[in-house]
Amino acid sequence: MLTVDDLKDLQGKKVFVRVDFNVPQKNGVIRDDNRIRAALPTLKALVGKGARLIVTSHLGKIKWKEPDSEKIEAMKAANNLECAANRLGELLPETKVYFCPENTGETVKKAVSELKDGEILVLQNTRYQKGEEKNNPELAAEWASLADAFVMDAFGSAHRAHASTVGVPEILKGEGKPVALGYLMIKEVENLSRCVEVKDSDRPYVAILGGFKVSDKIKVIDTLLKKCDYVLIGGAMSYTFKKALGAPIGTSPFEEDQLDYAKKCLEEAKGKLILPVDSVVSDKFDENEPRTIKVVDEIPDGFEGLDIGPKTCEEYAKIISKAKMVFWNGPAGVFEQKDFQAGTIAICEAIAKLDGKAFTVCGGGDSASAVKQFGFKDKFSHVSTGGGASLEMIENDGHLPGVDVLR
Ligand code: ADP
Ligand code: MG
User: Fold this and answer.
1) Within its chain, how far is the Cα of 12 from the centroid?
2) How far is CA 350 from the centre of its chain?
């Protein structure tokens, strides 16, 4: 695969760059500009090479199935990418950054033709086009016709085969034009690949899986059970496994239709699948109501398990302390609430203690935000910027549509 570094002679060339500017914002006020900052190394490198950049990204959701056109217009207005373009301009004071309020048609063509070397044109939110998510060939062809090269740096969108992530590079590649990975993509792909192509020196390889549902994570569980030496289970999903073993789980959530799957996993995993031995439980899962919180081995009727308990934390920390590689997805408890944070923090601490002695990766939207919230981001070898994309990369043995198209 080509990378930004391989792209030579870009002076005067138009490069279609797909970034992930899907920032949290309201009324154009950006709460967190990390995703914009994450794209800067690639954008700066291309600007430095004298390229003319056509920068694209999606922002939020536009539900095209909505029959009321006024509601569609309201969704568009709420997801105008102009705020991200403005922020990019502030972050790159030496570079001319323009915003085009449209992303197809004559206005775009004209704006692109007026671009000078080393300048950036940010096009409107790709999802303003109905065809984006369907990878509509005409839309992809129109975008491809604007450019001489393609750079993919939107890791958070690389699991989606959309017009701007897969359609455009497919066409340009077919025309013999260069398509390449940006720096953020290189970092993500390198780090996550190591978790799927496991070397002997990376063993013991320990996975920690948590979060809400077994059904959301079946492919990840299957893949990691094949590759890892230990798979430690936490989060709500642990109660489906517990239930499958016939253990009392009180009113904890479990998935009836995943019980057979959970049983099968437990049988086939031959001891490498580890379940919590205690839980922090409550008889009311509602922040506004008084509740009773207890630590128990077996969950009594009327109580719900909301975090792994201290014995489990200790056992998991012991296993983690021997690891040479760790992949973590899914919080161990309802980390959004103070009473149920301890398990997730204990896992962060156990991983932090490995500092330098093991390769440690956190992937998944909520897990990554927990790691950041508790101040452990720097203690990991890699915290993925892509929630869904990092999981799909693990699930699909290192493959993602937005990466494979660049091969
Ligand atoms: P990720 O985004 O990292 O892949 P998930 O989306 O699968 O993780 O799960 C995150 C959610 O799981 C969090 O909102 C957390 O509150 C919830 N969760 C974790 N443990 C429990 C539990 N025991 N009961 C209910 N919800 C839980
Ligand atoms: Mg999530």
Assistant:
1) 34
2) 23
Q: How far apart are CA 182 and CA 345, in angstroms?
A: 33
Mean pLDDT of the chain: 96
Single out the catalytic residue among 44, 203, 213, 272: 213
35 is known as an active-site residue = yes
Runs of H (alpha helix) within 276-341: 310-321
3-state helix, strand, coil in the chain (%, to 5): 40, 15, 40
User: Which residue in 231, 266, 230, 228 sits closest to 247, CA to CA?
Assistant: 266
Predicted TM-score (pTM) of the model is 0.91
Distance between Cα 240 and ligand 1 center (Å): 14
Paired residues of 295 in beta bridges? 280
- Which tens digit of pLDDT belongs to each residue from 131-187? 999 999 999 999 999 999 999 999 999 999 999 999 999 999 999 999 999 999 999
pLDDT attached to residue 303: 93
Report the C-alpha gap between 149 and 16 in whole angstroms.
6
pLDDT tier at 291, thresholds 50, 70, 90: confident
Ligand 1 atom at minimal distance to the Cα of residue 370: 3
Distance 346 CA to ligand 2 centre (A): 20
Query: Who contacts 105 (Cβ-Cβ below 8 Å, separation ≥6)?
Result: none
With b for 16 or more beta-carbon neighbours within 10 A and e for fewer, the 91-108 pattern comes to bbeebebebbeebbeeeb
Question: In which element (H, E) is residue 191 found?
Answer: helix 183-196
- The active-site residue out of 333, 365, 386, 387 is 365
Annotated catalytic residue within 28, 60, 89, 388: 388
3-state secondary structure of 97: strand
Residue 286 has pLDDT above 70, yes or no: no
Residues at CB less than 6 angstroms from ligand 1: 210-212, 216, 235-236, 305-306, 329-331, 333-334, 336, 364-367, 387
φ and ψ at 135, to 5 degrees?
Answer: 50, 50
Residue 63 belongs to what H/E stretch? none
Ligand 1 centroid distance, CA of 22 (Å): 22
Per-chain residues with Cβ under 5 A from ion ligand 2:
365-366
**Total residues found in the chain within this entry:** 407
Going from the C-alpha of 256 to that of each of 11, 66, 84, 246, 291, the distances in angstroms are: 60, 33, 44, 13, 27
156 is catalytic: no
Question: DSSP of 275-291, one letter per residue?
Answer: --S-EEEES---TTS--
